[in-house]
Design a protein that fits this description.
The complex is a heterodimer of chains A (255) and B (975). With 255 residues, chain A is α/β, with parallel strands linked by helices. Chain A is built from seven helices and eleven strands. Chain A has helices spanning 15-24, 34-38, 66-75, 77-85, 95-102, 169-177, 241-254, and strands at residues 3-8, 28-33, 49-52, 89-93, 118-121, 129-137, 153-159, 163-166, 181-185, 201-205, 211-214. Classes of the chains: A alpha/beta (255), B alpha+beta (975).
Chain lengths: 255, 975
Amino acid sequence: MVDVAVITGYGLNTDYESEEAFRLTGADPVRIHINDLISGKNSLENYQIMMVPGGFSYGDHLGSGKVLANKFRFNLRDDLKRFIEADKLIIGVCNGFQILVKMGILPALEGEYFSQSVTITYNKSGQFESRWVSMKANQTSPCIWTKNLITPLDAPVRHGEGQFIPMNEAILQKLWDRNLVVFTYDPNTYPNNPNGSTDGIAGICNESGLIFGMMPHPECHLIPQHHPQWARNNNPDTTGLVIFKNAVEYAKKNL
Amino acid sequence: MADVHRIEVGITQADGVKNAIKSDLGYSVEKVLAINVYTIEGGNLSSSELDFLAGEVFSDPIVEKFTIDSPLAEAFDGTVVEIGFKPGVTDNVGRTSKEAIKDALNKDVTGAYYSRQFLFYRTSEDVAEKIVRDLLANSLIERWVVKSGVEYMGFSPFIPKVILNTEPTVEEVNLNISDEQLIEMSKTRLLALNLEEMKALQTHYKNQKNIRLQKGLPANPTDIEIECIAQTWSEHCKHKIFNALIDYEEPGRSEQIDSIFKIYIRGSTEKINSPYLVSIFKDNAGVIQFDKDHIFSMKVETHNSPTALDPYGGALTGIVGCNRDPAGTGKGFKLIFNTDVFCFGSPFYEGEIPPRLFHPRRVLKGVHKGIIDGGNQSGIPTVNGSLYFDKRYLGKPLVFCGTGGIAPTRIANKLVHEKAPNPGDLAIMVGGRIGADGIHGATFSSLEINENSPNTAVQIGSPIVQKKMLDFLLEARDLDLLNAITDNGAGGLSSSLGEMGEEIGVQIDLEKAPLKYSGLLPWEILLSEAQERMSLAVSPENLKKLIELTVKHDVELTVIGKFNTTKHFQFYYNNRLIGEIPMEFLHNGVPQKKMKGIWSPKPEEEPIIPIPEDYNILLKKILTRLNICSKEEIVRRYDHEVQACTIVKPFMGVSNDGPSDAAVLKPVYTSWEGLSVSHGMCPRYSDIDTYAMAANSIDEAVRNAVCVGANPDFMAGLDNFSWAMGFTEEDEIYYTGLLVRANKAVYDVTTAYKVPCISGKDSMRNDYRIGNTSVSVPPTLLFSVVGKLPDVRKSITMDVKHEGDLVYVLGTTKNELGASEYFDELGHTGTKVPQVDTNTAYQRYRKLYAAIQDKLVISAHDCSDGGLGVALAESSFSGGIGMEIDLRKVPKDNISRDDFLLFSESASRIIVTISPDKKEEFEGIMAGTDFAQIGETKGLEIKITGLDGTNLIQSEIAELKQAWKGTFQFLGGKE
């Protein structure tokens, strides 16, 4: 059985549907409060996959994801390091993506973890965006989570801070050269690119492809009836479930 | 200042502010930049620690710069302002900053405070001052400093700390005074009690004298007793008007009504007695059975008075406050959706704004931001709502917030909807700390707004503190650690513990209550409405486990008393008894209010309406009206689908922008059973008759639910009255008459439709008077409905779907243009307000439900504001397919004009499309009701043939849609 830790606490709020997503793949997901990891009541050691779901940790104060990222970084650095070194899988969605980026485990170029090289900040529109978007997956990406995702994936975004910005051109170039850009908004125009992200980047992974983050919510597209076009029979066949299935299949074979 | 540091972080382009200055105030500012300022007090931070905090905690290394104890901005041609909170106002960012510092340095600082700095380029200090006052800050809760940019050298730190030098004392309140003095006391102490109620107090204390003296209490009440009683007896908590004995007269009859609530609302629910009712009118929210294993709970609240003072804080507190109702019902529900309905003055209002009021545009933006923050940050999807505009809401905006929750039927083999504290249980408070926030909130909302309104009435909620608390409470519930739970809303601890201990008695030790700052009086601690708090009854043996859970969830818990068998509410401070009220007197001692209500129909002439010249222009004009146009610019800012349960979202249709009639949720992941969430509201109909206003509101809410496929025989309603009482005795008689009329409709329509009310709320005094300006809101009933769907896969949306489908109208269109959008557009009210024929409507709804279950229906859309013309246009352009319609085929009664037929708002009508091959089957099911096929879907235009057979309307749907979406474009983030 593949054990999945879905992190909760401090305003994370898509933990239930994230748990459901993994449950539908046949894995054994558990919602775990970050403080249970910090206090030692539970340990990341017991899991093959960690998901940091979406939400509003600390109300986005001091920048989205920032304060919870620091909580991870200052309290669970060694646990995370061991988790990563054991080639286990991590996904961050929306606030979870912001957290992974701000604690510096994504993209962690050259394996340099806990050093921030990109950021996710306020939408160019200056406002919270709640709408469905369409994404194209990079077929050449090493990302485990998006294997064989040939068709576009639709999912909702719900964020005020989703604009992806790299520290500089060199970082951006490396992300492209190494195929670490996993998802781009397609078409790359507002409102389908809801936040003005550089190059329409919606999700990235690290060089091993095991650690992955994205702004849209695949855990909110698990059944056809989640899609806003379902009542018109105009929804695509691909749902977000494929992302969770890929990870669980990988964990079953390799971990 | 010693041991105080300022960290400034930025600099960001504040284009949103720049655009708002232009659109709302009319000033062109060349450039606006924003800087975040964190002021840190105490902790003896070293310069390396400060560097670490600024770099690793407060700034984003990729996009931000920072300075420590020096200004980030250099001198420039313009004006710089800094806005921070006044002492005692909730500073959510400051609170997070303090926690973040602790995480980073493992060190506590005394305080951390947030302020915002703006740089206005090429702007004078006068203009900057005006921008701050009229757009960016609220003087009730914020302070600011304006400086010239030219010689700018930074700001000195300011610590907004509350310092109260009062010693906690208890005052005796002398009631041995004249009637005039009693009335005066009620006013000056903000008790909001009338003479009869003051005299009931007087008599009670006279009778209790000996018992009190024996216990060491003064014969007169202490301040804490009188404050507790006044708040428990407030209109807000006791619904004295809904429970009043009313002498009612209308032409040809008079009657005495012993409680509107008992007769018309509870009376209706008892008569209907639906099998799915679980717990009604006795808890914080009503409870019904959802499926075998789950119960559902819902509450809708108003938060009008606080919103008038601070639109952002009022709305934010409104939504997170309403969340605590289902969360505090039974042993607690998991919250699954929010709804919100606002009534405002026009955002395009150009007249004078009376003192102490905000421009409706500012109210709208503030409320909007409050709901965005409150709903989104709580992780609860906003699935349904509306905005309604009328100039009379200028005096008091109405903000209705609703929340639904779901819970297992049983936990640990006990029914979750049942709760009761046992004698010996600990009385526990969890969540936020107590400050002077919101003291007198309950009594304040029972008074009209005037010059002396206390600014403690403003509170700002923290969705994140609450989210942590609600996560904690759900886990505690699942571990069966709670015997009872209730929220601290209006009246604070005095309400929550007073209600929980009503049957047995409770003692509260006020010195144990956790405070934000010292110096609060015991009665203030009891009454504070500081947010994010719940009260619990817990068996002593469960305390240890509960405390462990609070550590995990980072939630504060305090044992503040004990339930007992005294049947008294007992107040102790440092082990001294400072007050004691018999529960019986507290809860049942308030004398029944006696009122008079008179209603007579308004003698208004039916206006003479000229025949319109161009129906294409007319339809487009109607589509742009505030109460009809698209609200997408507002609603797109809310999260609609967190928790992954939303099946019919606020917007569906080919471009995801068609306005859904109701939301459909699938609250249990492993089941296809669903819930619809809808509402109805028709305030303008009150200008003719509040009976019709209420009847149409209920019909609209039910109809919206039917349109998405809910079962008309499995629905429940919530009634929210926002009324006015005016300023004189005659006003009160008049509005009471209107209230009785409305409630007669509630009884008649809910019993006819068999839709029981499960919960409700009233906000009775939405009047404004300062100086010579007085405004009262139109009597408003918001009726919300939840309905059951056996299978969400059979939900129906409002958009047409294929070319060649047949368009039907269900129901008859009558000459009922009174108070319609069409007449209002022309400046008339009229007399013939829509009447609800419940018998035919109920049959129609049941048959449509059967047709939907048989998969015969492709789309269904409610026909309401703006009538057939608007409903047809919306269905058509939302589906991206035109229509050809022949008005001659519309079932009608006493109408001979095209404009009346198009824009009459007759009740209970629905536009439906079906596939041509289902025609016979569909018509077979609908047989026996009024309906007709009036056209078909075709092309990209709406073509409507008039009664004389000529072409009345021929408009491209894209053009109509553009008009309909244009009204609120000014709110968009883009320039």
